[in-house]
Design brief:
The chain is α/β, with parallel strands linked by helices and 192 residues long. Helices cover 48% and strands 8% of the residues. It contains 9 helices and 4 strands, in the order ααααααβαββαβα. A 4-stranded parallel β-sheet has the order 3-2-1-4, covered by helices on one side. Helix 1 runs antiparallel to helix 2. The chain starts with a helix and ends with a helix. The relative contact order is 0.11.
Length: 192
C-alpha cells in the first residue's frame, strides 16, 4: 500500500498545485509520512482533511477530482495503521502539552500498542499484552521497549512506583479499562 498511496498523494500535489487548501492538506500528509519514516512525529497537528460542502461546490468545475482527493486524504489513517502501526496521529505540539501535564514523574502506560507515544515521553514504562499483533499491521514493530503484561496486572505491579497512569488504547471488545478504574478507586479513592 505504501508506494501506491504515497505516489497518489504526490500525483494529487501536482494536480491540485493551484488550489492552496488542497495543497496544504496533501503537503501535511506527505510531511507526516516523512516524519514517521524517520521515527519521528509531525511537528504540528494535521489540518482538517475534509473539504466543506461550499469548497467542493466552488472548486468542483475546475478540480473535478476534489471528491476523489478527499477520499484519498481520509485514507491516511488506514495507511499509517498498516504501514507504521500507528492508530492515533500525534503532533509534537500535542506531546508538549502532555509532557507538561505529566511533569517529570514516572508514568505507566498500559495498552501501549507499538508504544509510539511512549517513545517520546520521559520516565515512562510501556506495557501491553500484545494480543493485537498482526491484526491491522503485518509487521508490528514497537517504537520503544514494551513489557508484555496485561493492563490490570501492570497497574497492580507498578501502582506504588508511578505518579501517572495512561490507558493508551483500550479495545472496544473488553472492559479492562473499567476494571482498572475500579481497582484504582479501591486503592486510591480518586481517579482523574
Amino acid at each position: 500500500m505504501e508506494e501506491e498511496y504515497i505516489q497518489n498523494l504526490k500525483n494529487y500535489l501536482v494536480e491540485f498545485d493551484k488550489l492552496p487548501i488542497a495543497k496544504k492538506k496533501i503537503t501535511a500528509l506527505l510531511e507526516a509520512d516523512n516524519c514517521y519514516k524517520k521515527g519521528n512525529i509531525p511537528t504540528k497537528s494535521l489540518p482538517n482533511l475534509e473539504f466543506t460542502e461550499t469548497e467542493i461546490l466552488n472548486y468542483l468545475t475546475e478540480f473535478p477530482n476534489i471528491i476523489e482527493l478527499e477520499s484519498s486524504l481520509l485514507d491516511f489513517r488506514e495507511y499509517v495503521i498498516e504501514e507504521y502501526g500507528i492508530w492515533h496521529i500525534y503532533s509534537q505540539e500535542w506531546l508538549q502539552d502532555l509532557e507538561k501535564f505529566l511533569g517529570n514523574e514516572l508514568t505507566l502506560m498500559v495498552m501501549a500498542g507499538n508504544a509510539m507515544l511512549g517513545k517520546f515521553l520521559k520516565n515512562i514504562i510501556c506495557t501491553d499484552n500484545l494480543d493485537w499483533r498482526y491484526q491491522d499491521n503485518e509487521h508490528p514493530n514497537p517504537w520503544t521497549k514494551v513489557e508484555q503484561l496485561d493492563a490490570l496486572e501492570a497497574v497492580k505491579k507498578y501502582l506504588n512506583n508511578v505518579s501517572n497512569i495512561i490507558i493508551e488504547w483500550c479495545p472496544d471488545s473488553t472492559d479492562i479499562d473499567m476494571q482498572i478504574l475500579h481497582y484504582l478507586r479501591q486503592k486510591n479513592g480518586k481517579v482523574i
